[in-house]
Amino acid sequence: MLKIGTRGSHLATTQAGHVRDALIAGGAEAELRIVTTAGDLNMSPVERIGVGVFTTALRDALASGEVDVAVHSFKDLPTAGDARLHLVTPEREDNREALIARDGLTLTQLPQGAKVGTSAPRRVSQLRALRPDLDIRPLRGNIETRMSYVERGELDAIILAYAGLCRGGYAERATEVFDPATLMPAPAQGALAVECRADDAATRAALDALVSAEATACAAAERQVLATLEAGCTAPVAAYAELGERGALTLHAGVFAVDGSAQLVETLTGTDAAALGREAAEKLLERGAADIIK
């Protein structure tokens, strides 16, 4: 029986459940095991406590043998690899950003000075460029908690990853789903990272059957942007890649000033995901990305 480690939130258990079901469909026996992390007990914003509190606990449980498989939102993982572990990327969910607003409003329909909740610098910076009049408020908690701020009228709208809404069964709650060219998503948004111990040959084989070549290539290009920029997942950095004909990837990468005053965007096409990500990041650095990130 493969023990699949996951955080206990509705979203985390739902996405881990998809992995469990895929493994069972492939002939394995699998069940979920909840791993409590320090981040689950600390309600401070991710930007303050660091997203690593979520991933480290799962990886430690995996390395110690408490669980056999760990499921992460890929965008939350550090860009440096972990030699103890074997990582695969299954089919990706929609990578776009979504708005949940009162009265079914879209971003352009929100009134002057509307209160919009998000704590991600990447989202804050792009929102300020699109709508400098907005009153952007910090936002924390799981998806249900975040949506409740709009339901109670404390916020006019919030921004969330559409993938989380889709996986959690809340897709219909989105009042607008943004074109990635309008509001660029986080690198690897919508992708899962599924890990096992590197020396566990049987589990490696089971996970390898779940691999999506397209999701793997796109996520690799996007995350290489972060790695080359030496930026964390909470930096104002965005990227998304699309797979075209004959295996060509088109990568869009951006760095944004948090006050909305500057936006640097590069678009490149190539077949080597890692090389494409490095080239895009290097071009951004040449244009002053390091100063914006700092």
TrEMBL record:
GO terms for molecular function: hydroxymethylbilane synthase activity. The keyword Repressor does not apply. It is an enzyme of class 2 (transferase). InterPro entries: HemC (IPR000860), Porphobilin_deaminase_cofac_BS (IPR022419), Porphobilin_deaminase_N (IPR022417), Porphobilinogen_deaminase_C (IPR022418), Porphobilinogen_deaminase_C_sf (IPR036803). The keyword Electron transport does not apply. Its cofactor is dipyrromethane. It comes from the Bacteria. Residues 2-204 form the Porphobilinogen deaminase N-terminal domain. It catalyses: 4 porphobilinogen + H2O = hydroxymethylbilane + 4 NH4(+). Residues 217-285 form the Porphobilinogen deaminase C-terminal domain. Binds 1 dipyrromethane group covalently. Its EC number is 2.5.1.61. Keywords: Porphyrin biosynthesis, Transferase. Belongs to the HMBS family. The porphobilinogen subunits are added to the dipyrromethane group. Tetrapolymerization of the monopyrrole PBG into the hydroxymethylbilane pre-uroporphyrinogen in several discrete steps. Monomer. This is Porphobilinogen deaminase. It comes from Corynebacterium godavarianum.
